[in-house]
Amino acid sequence: MSNLEARFEALVAKIRALPADGPTQPSQRLKLRLYGLYRQAKDGDVQGDKPGAFDLVAKFKYDAWANCEGMSRDAAMKQYVNEVEAFAEDHGVEI
């Protein structure tokens, strides 16, 4: 496992472990961005049919992933790490 992959996996675990009712939470926009980057890093380019307009959550997730289309696995992991580190710095959270 590369250093980048290890850092990526550690940050994924830390973001998932943030308490839902805690004082510091990523914005919905950041959560979607991280979701898209995560899926791109794990699964590559977006797959499957775009969800219909009535399933808003699935549609937003699909769009977030589709926005990362063409990005390499390493680039997606690096961007994820950068986004989480910037969030932590901006909010004084130790990550």
In words, what does this structure look like?
- The chain is mostly helical and 95 residues long.
- It has one domain: Acyl-CoA Binding Protein.
- The chain is 64% helix and 0% strand.
- The protein has four helices and no strands.
- The two termini are 20 Å apart.
- The mean pLDDT is 94.
Topology as a string of helices (H) and strands (E): HHHH
Give the number of domains: 1
Strand proportion, as a percent range, falls in: under 5%
Shape: globular
Radius of gyration over C-alpha positions, nearest whole angstrom:
14 Å
**Helical content class:** 55-70%
Poorly predicted ranges: none
List keywords for this structure.
64% helix, globular, mainly alpha, 95 residues, 0% strand, Acyl-CoA Binding Protein, 4 helices
